[in-house]
Amino acid sequence: MGQETISPDSSLLPHLRHGPNGIQLIVKGKPFLMLAGELHNSSLSSARFMADVWPTMKAQSINTLLGSVYWEMIEPVEGQFDFSGLDAVVRGAREHGLHLVLLWFGTYKNGMSTYVPHWVKRDVKRFPRVHVLDETASGRRKRTLEMISPFSDECVTADSRAFRRLTEHLAEMDSEHNTVIMIQVENESGLLGDARDRSRVAEAEFEKGVPSALVDHLVAATKDLHPKFIRRFGERLETVAKARSEGKATSWEALFGPGDAASEAFTANAISTYVGKVAAAGKQGYPIPMYTNTWLNFDDPAAAAAAALDLEGLPFVAGGGAQPGIYPSGGPCPHVTDIWRFNAPALDFLAPDLYLQDYEAVCRDYTAHADSPLFIPEQRRDEHGARRVWLAYATYGALGTGPFGIDTAPEAIGREYKLLAQTKEYLLNTPPSKRFGFFFDELPQSGPPKGQEHWTKMFGGHLEVIVERAFVFGKAGPGGGMVIQLGGEDSARFLAVGRGFNVHFKSHKDDATFTGILDSREKEYVEDTGELRTLRTLNGDETRSGKFLIMPNEDPDYGGFPIAVTIPARTCIAEVEAYWICESNEDM
Hints:
The structure is a single chain. By secondary structure, this protein is an alpha/beta fold. It folds into 2 domains: 10-111 and 160-189 and 263-429, Glycosidases (TIM Barrel, Alpha-Beta Barrel), CATH 3.20.20.80; 435-582, Chondroitinase Ac, Chain A, domain 3 (Sandwich). Helices cover 30% and strands 27% of the residues. The chain has helices spanning 47-50, 53-59, 71-74, 84-95, 118-121, 153-174, 200-207, 212-220, 227-245, 252-256, 260-285, 301-310, 337-343, 359-365, 383-395, 411-428; strands at 15-19, 22-27, 30-32, 34-38, 64-70, 99-109, 129-136, 139-148, 180-187, 290-295, 349-354, 375-379, 400-403, 435-440, 455-459, 463-469, 479-486, 493-499, 501-507, 512-525, 532-537, 549-551, 573-582. The strands form 5 sheets. Strands 4-5-6-9-10-11-12-13 form an 8-stranded parallel beta barrel, surrounded by 6 helices. Strands 14-17-18-23-20-21 form a 6-stranded antiparallel sheet. The protein has a 4-stranded antiparallel sheet with strand order 15-16-19-22, with no helix packed on it. Residues 2-8 have low confidence and may be disordered.
């Protein structure tokens, strides 16, 4: 996975590049930071509808939109393709200076096949369906789903043909412009309602056991497998490796365990093989970055229950569950990503749709492989979600984040994106070791805070940067932002961006007796030149007399305190330099 099958003039196309500043998306020869949002499912189907959306997105500093392309729309009659609607929206984006990530809603969308053409839906003999088992009062009974079986050779051939025709068309009409910079292949693939397909063809495949090529790969790549794969299946893999050396076949249960575990791995193998074939066909037509997204699971029922409580009793459908079939079984969740990576090498990476899970834990899960960039194609678009994008971009080097439903409520995200747009050159030109992001949620009415209250990172081997909530006399509010080291590895100068936090420093040199702020200046963005220039010098109340830099919120809560010692936020960008004093006992 991550191998680029790009033509000799690939530098002219969007592509991924590994470098000292992490894995970056290159557009028109330069690193590009996607300040993205995902549209509602039907928005991109109409150029007239999008006419009012484009300028609204631009006003919120959004530079990339994720939108769907339906198989049923481009091939309503088998073999007859119509790209007129797509061309109109691509031209609309181009005219407004926006980029697109197209979402191919082919065979699979959210564990179903509702976006396939009518001629596919009606022909169940040519395009057989998935069958699942239901428990009824009279016993177990098979039920037909609106999901094409991943064992349908006819459907994967038809889907691959349509997707390749789409990408070939994009190559013809957009390769000079790079309006479309990535493509998502299918959407939240997997099986809902059961852990695996129970159709006759699927049962026959299950009995054949794990394909020998997959077993050989997992055994050979043991040291590079995902930590969650090893945690679940590592001991079984050791046993299987020994059996393989004796020439024995491997059943799904032997490698992955009985019941749902084996069924989920079997489903992951089938669906990743299917999606891999579609992706490979698309790459042949237009070799730009491609990925697929994940409807995430929870690793245990307690975590799922805790997330449901956070929603205060609202319907809990997007967050997944703890059992395959409650979340789409076989989708590229962390514990089966190694199966996906093996079967779908044309995909450049796998991406999580991140709504309710632990945000940072998921970021770690999807960057666990050294060649895997982070991209979050779906997440919350509210303030809760907006605060977390700082962690994705600054700590984990995300290519972008894509809050879902951005066309109907972009303001919370736009507030953060405007700051990211003003400081993106610093972010893109700084290695991961010299930057980090953080966030603080609303404080509860009673009890301790739920999230992390202290974020720290060591620079230059001794200088610790410590971030906490902004100090006020009343109730501290939410916040989020990033800190970037300026200059060399030993530099004590930093750029602080965001709201609602304090920054202070501690030298860990053995003889350091004092650490404080040497200089701090509020910066403003100059749109004409793209530079940050000093607006004012900060000291006194704004640094608590050199103890810490305050990056306040727009409306600090003084709690009735009569002196406004914390002023409201203005530019939300500051440059600060620390210093320390080293004195021996004889000097003091």
